[in-house]
Design brief:
Elements (H helix, E strand, L loop, with lengths): L2 H15 L3 H19 L9 H24 L3 H15 L8 H17 L8 H12 L5 H13 L1
Length: 154
């Protein structure tokens, strides 16, 4: 078992002992998503820590989107629960880049792409190829893409 998956399992056991319903249900759902990913495909395999982290990030994103949908639908209590679950999952993810840090990385990538001859909105793909490896796991793709578009537009 990978170290991150083992940590999730240990934290789940602790949450169950402490009778923390929110934490235990969130971790249970996340471990289920990890197991589902492991058995997907033709053969069962064990996920690496990076792959487990991607599953956790995907689950956290689902929680954020659900919280927004519940808030727009006027279901504040459900939105709060989804946000709380997202906070629990965020503890297992690397620290997210601040807007300033992300903007510096994207600006450097735009300059690098411009140096290679790619400019304007058509350079989006080239800039994203430069930025994605640098921010992997530390910033959501949509957030990065929006900033790239903004900086390419001028």
């Amino acid at each position: 078992m990978t170290t991150l998956k083992a940590r999730l399992q240990d934290d789940l056991n602790a949450a169950i002992r402490e009778r923390d319903e929110l934490r235990s249900s969130t971790l249970r759902l996340t471990l289920t998503a990890i197991t589902k990913e492991e058995v997907a495909g033709t053969t069962k395999r064990e996920l690496s820590d990076d792959e487990v982290q991607k599953v956790i990030a995907r689950e956290a994103k689902k929680r954020r989107e659900a919280a927004e949908a519940f808030a727009q639908g006027g279901r504040a209590e459900s939105a709060e629960r989804e946000q709380a679950e997202g906070v629990i999952l965020d503890a297992y993810l690397p620290k997210q880049l601040s807007d300033d840090e992300l903007e510096q990385i994207v600006a450097a990538a735009v300059a690098e792409a411009a140096g290679a001859g790619a400019e304007g909105p058509r350079a989006m793909g080239a800039v994203m190829k430069i930025v994605n490896p640098k921010v992997a796991g530390q910033a959501e793709g949509g957030r990065v893409a929006a900033l790239v578009k903004k900086l390419l537009a001028g």
